[in-house]
Records
---
Amino acid sequence: MIPKPNQATQPLSKKRLRLWLKLLKASSLIEDEIRRRFRNDHDWTLPRFDVMSALSRAPDGLKMGEISKLLRVSGGNVTGIVDKLTEEDLALRVAVPGDRRAQLVRLTAKGCNMFAAHSTAHEAWIDEILGKLDENDIKDMMARLDRMNETLNDEKKNAN
Amino acid sequence: MIPKPNQATQPLSKKRLRLWLKLLKASSLIEDEIRRRFRNDHDWTLPRFDVMSALSRAPDGLKMGEISKLLRVSGGNVTGIVDKLTEEDLALRVAVPGDRRAQLVRLTAKGCNMFAAHSTAHEAWIDEILGKLDENDIKDMMARLDRMNETLNDEKKNAN
DNA sequence: CTTAAATATTTCAAGCTTGAAATCTTGATG
DNA sequence: CATCAAGATTTCAAGCTTGAAATATTTAAG
């Protein structure tokens, strides 16, 4: 007989692992669903939405490196996505007066309109998907997620 | 004066959106850190680890389609990863007696050993990263994540 | 001014991922 | 048996992502 693992008495490390797997599953399911809806309902992609979302909060534009930091993705990645947005006339690159290395990226009017529509749909999707969580659930999870992130922030600091 | 947004009185949909963004951030940070450690410490990748992990729990092997369902990734994706594992003699494809369409994938002895080492390291990393969460935090978050997933499961059922 | 280090961005190869089309096999129906 | 839908897998093009190398520019030091 193989002994049936009793989860209640598992070592803490195993419980943390199970939590991580569940957290990852939840966030993957949601992210995939959002991707799918962007693709099917708007013929659009999540990475492009994310870049436009960052730009929408910066009317004066963002430098490539700023987008990269905000979204925590590589510089090369941003180059590719902004290229696509620019080709479709949704964003444009403008020179930075004092620095010929850098460029500011800004949404065009067309880009602003498109983002407004996508953004409204996106918020509604999330509201639907997280519909079973009330104010209390949200407050609680936020606090615990913050506590999780602390560890990673600590590590980043100590990695000097 | 632009009114400062008071998060406490935001509509519930906005709060849900903020929670989603925080959840996504947390899980992305952790996943990226795990990827980085696999890459730097073991010259390995997370997708390959995931496939080996599924295989390790099935001594008799898994069909390609079963791996695909377990990991919730496309069939074509699994083909590519299993090809890589096979090339490195970590897994092998064996014929299914009654069905010439399908194949069973199994870890080799070499694959088992490699996975055991990676798996131990992986659990320790997660234990470290989630180190600030105790039994209570874990139980609580598990319950709420389950409740979130219900919505997506419901939708999948209704999507018949 | 010259040089060297630091910054900002792009290019590129390699890997992951997907959805759709293609191939081959099985099973059910007549 | 013949046909045809369903199933398992592979192939493929397109897109995202990364880290490292390459370019170009700025800044700091001497």
---
Amino acid sequence: MNGKKTSRVTLQQVADHAGVSKSTASLTLRGHPRIPAKTREKVLASMKSLGYVYDRVAANLRSQSSSTIGLIISEISNPFFSELVEGVQQTLDKQGYTVLLGATGDSPTKQETLLFMMLEYRVGGVIVSPVSGSSHENLDQLKQWGIPMVIATREPLQMTNYDFVGVDNIAGSKMAVEYLIANGHRRIALLGGSPQISTWRDRKQGYLDALTQAGIEIDESLVMEGPITRKGGIEIVERILRHPIPPTAALCFNDVVALGVMKGLKAAGMQPGPDFSVIGFDNISESAVHSPELTTVSTFPDKMGKHAAELLHQRIVGMVEPPKRIILKPELVVRESCSSLRL
Amino acid sequence: MNGKKTSRVTLQQVADHAGVSKSTASLTLRGHPRIPAKTREKVLASMKSLGYVYDRVAANLRSQSSSTIGLIISEISNPFFSELVEGVQQTLDKQGYTVLLGATGDSPTKQETLLFMMLEYRVGGVIVSPVSGSSHENLDQLKQWGIPMVIATREPLQMTNYDFVGVDNIAGSKMAVEYLIANGHRRIALLGGSPQISTWRDRKQGYLDALTQAGIEIDESLVMEGPITRKGGIEIVERILRHPIPPTAALCFNDVVALGVMKGLKAAGMQPGPDFSVIGFDNISESAVHSPELTTVSTFPDKMGKHAAELLHQRIVGMVEPPKRIILKPELVVRESCSSLRL
DNA sequence: GTGAAAGCGCTAACAG
DNA sequence: CTGTTAGCGCTTTCAC
């Protein structure tokens, strides 16, 4: 698993070539103010002519610091996460960090392994979107080592002493359901996901709140759990149609499920929108181009990534303040997949 | 940009605690066969009780090796690339490497910066999907330092002395166009992309080959370049419709463009499939669930990632063989977005 | 301002 | 089999 040896130009060689000492060369390298222009140029010239490349690994070791950060998500090819990764990347990049990426595939064991590996790599901090239902033991371990960490998206139970970036899922699903109610729907389903996921619990809460507030009786049989995949969405349609008193609209756990649901509806000869209203969650870029276009709740994964990165940076440079929580305000994006209930 | 100092348990401390020397501890750590079980257990127990964490950075420095590899792509949130990343990740992961991810956003400067940064991090190797139109100078530099590198997806001009993983773009677009021809189409457009991209040139070649072979005269006005985005696809529809003798079908540079084109067609009141056949390229997962489902040419990004990772691994562990080229065979996936030309 | 020396945490020779 | 010694390439006191 290890790479082969490579011989590099060392700082010592640069120093020799420039006729100065290693320390002077080192200071020059990092732009120390007290190095006179003349010396600096000499060193810089030597560096260039020898083809010197800075060895960050050695530097980090010696200075006991780190310029890499770890990013742990569950799946890269899920658009929600890839947009999150992009947000993190772009922000951290500006700040001179490099990111070590890891994907858990939603396996707690894998998450543990990754966390540990990040530790071994001396990362300066970690951004993690915890696997569904992961306890805090796992994460606490990192904290114990003094590694700054910010949790993104999902929040394990009882984890108030971490920085957290998320979205107000309760408000988001509430506004979605309120919109459906305002359009005449009374029997509204909640599709996909499961209670292990913190965001699911919140979204269910918002769903219940909206219904209760509108004086609509809760029918638990309309809350249908299922895998968070397109396939899960497709399959759940059957259950909807088999229901003794079928719903006329649904809020889906996320866009991926919603896209599946729409596909399932079409397969059953129904038209998403006119025949059955569906709302998604996240507003992944695909939602806008799908047909019909998906009505959804924006959760701004890229912004979440950006905020997570900024928070982590602050923590790394030493703010010892209490944990911060950044909760983004979701937005309802109304598109074609919803319509008023025909009476 | 640097992380704060953390104090860790060192191998020395473990050794002291176990009553052995540093070297014995080190050997134990890595499962050296000649360490008796008794000593090993003692050391392992000490490691556990002190909470020792291996410092890969220090180890890599000392052994002049590396267990990280760099992965450079243009954009993470492009499904094609995120699937590629996933393939690389999963494979390299098994082999004990950790990946340093970088996104160029298709900027040559950024690519150069990233390549250089990877160097500074002492990566054991690099997988790169070069920015469109990048010359080889940039990449040659890495090679000069003896860093194994494999090129994925796109291949800069005259780069035969690198490992390369790609797909047979010529064959892919040829089979797509042949399919359209077999369905009665004669005026077939090629939409999106531009000549700087090696894959575009190849796809155009296949397009021309198929037409020529069928005895259809080439009409260069049907080759319409444009940005490789959904928006680019949407906008290109106007140009199609304004054409004096409009095409009846199109091969798009990739699925993203094709999705845009279909959207544009619908906006213009046309039904993709019956009114205008469209074929994409890549077969990103979205293509299968879109409606209408997109006919496309599979290029298997995840497999490309897997092969690239394996190739890189081989090169890192020291095969000094001549550069290998792995060219995957594309597959045409026929779905709803195509139909026979009504005569 | 610049150099000499020490050392980050680990591995690799070489003794014993 | 295990300990001793010497660095990997860099940063960091502390003298000069």
